[in-house]
Amino acid sequence: MLPHDLVSELVIPELRGLLAHKLSEKGFGQLRISKLLGISQPMISKYMSVSYTEYLRRLEGLGLDADEVLRVVEILVEKLANNNQREYLELVSSFLNSILRRGLLCETHKRVSPTVPANCDVCFKLFEEVRDPYVEEVKAAYEILCLHPKAPEIIPEVGMNIVSAPPNARSFRDVAGFSGRIVKSDNRVIAVGEPVKGGSRHTASVLLKVMSKFPRVRSAIAIKYDEGCINKLSSAKLKVVRTGPHKSIDEFFTALEKAVSGLSEEPDVIADAGGLGIEPVLYVFSTSAIKALEKAFICVE
Q: What is the pLDDT of residues 76-98, one digit of tens each?
């Protein structure tokens, strides 16, 4: 059995099952989903007969990280929903290659195919370049932001950033974010820079402070401070925590750490009043950048 046979038999069907469920949640019918995934409608029906959690459990059983799988699926769904088939193919291929490159299926391969040498390193040598799922997630969130007609209304004057962190992130260098700022120009949203690991120091540091107490929070977006927005977020039953004003950036982070340490449940939003040389900003948090952006859009609904 070749490594690609293993991926084809054990990973791709489970991945398609997850995609089918998520596309269905977005309102796509089975016929439309079958066309997007390039398989028959009866096969989609078969995929839908198995629960989402079961597909995820099977992939975890192979050694895949559930958080990474969910993030990749979320991005792929957005690519498919926007008819961006080329990037869908690029990302799904890169993800499958990365599974082999990291040796996640090595033990399974040796178990089902005894002829595989004990010191086999074929996949490590063949698949060298893989796309980072956290960088891709930030990129996908930005693309969604650009498509929203009212996106410029939530951009702070100093610009915004979108960040996403892996579970083991310890420094801003571990966090994916834009190397520049996302700014508004007339009625458009423009990114100055590219999403990369270590791209954002400030917003990433804010996220890490929250992650240290609430590990499930893995993404953050900085949006324009507005009392009307705060009221809408609160009315949507989101937990809003206020901080500031501050006299310096150091004081801001001290106040942030104090506020987070006193919370018993994870915050959805930290409304910071800013201070001397610090623009007031709303930091919106969630388990992924796309979900954080969905919360932010409540302000312009």
A: 998 999 888 988 998 898 889 88
